[in-house]
Amino acid sequence: xxxxxxxIAEPPEVILYKEKNSKFYGYVFPVQSDDExxxxxxxxxxxxxxxxxxxxxxxxxxxxxxxxxxxxxxxxNSAGMxxxxxxxxxxxxxxxxxxxxxxxxxxxxxxxxxxxxxTAAQQALEGAVIVERTVDILIKVKFDYKNLNKVxxxxxEKNLSIISQxxxxxxxxIISTRKKxxxxxxxxxSALFEIEIERLH
Length: 201
What we know:
Blueprint: E1 4-8, E2 15-19, E3 22-30, H1 34-47, E4 53-60, E5 66-70, H2 80-90, E6 95-102, H3 109-126, E7 130-134, E8 136-144, H4 148-157, E9 161-166, E10 170-178, H5 179-190, E11 195-199
Antiparallel strand pairs: 1-7, 2-3, 3-6, 4-5, 4-6, 8-10, 8-11, 9-10
Helix pairs in contact: 2-3
């Protein structure tokens, strides 16, 4: 079972690629949602007010992959898909690549555009630090306070991360575990009496 994925650690420095007087600025951002994608695009539009095109592609997810590619007014499939192709060739996910173009007065043609957007995306990704992360599962554990020691023993034994906890008469702890360990953690908790467990995602 594969329970790791590759993504970028942080946004790298912007790169500038020039082709026949046109300038292509390449950006890469780590993202977790469509909303984050929108925020970054809005920031770039404010930053580059004179730019003609904000072409981008992004991919989200680890098991269920979701992606979008946008040509932003360039000829169909001449910008967004070449950018997305680079995300695929670098094997990363939860990432947004934006290439901002300033037109230099010389038309590049569809072939020239594809090459320029692909190169700008490639150079932007080459500047990023790629890291491997684990696919984690969140589990909610509910129990009476009297069973706290039993629950804590499992958490300690399995070296589980506690995301949040509510310790009152009825206790609730949300823990995180690597996907490949989730089944055994479930089994351990299921074997304990008076304890409810629920997988969150």
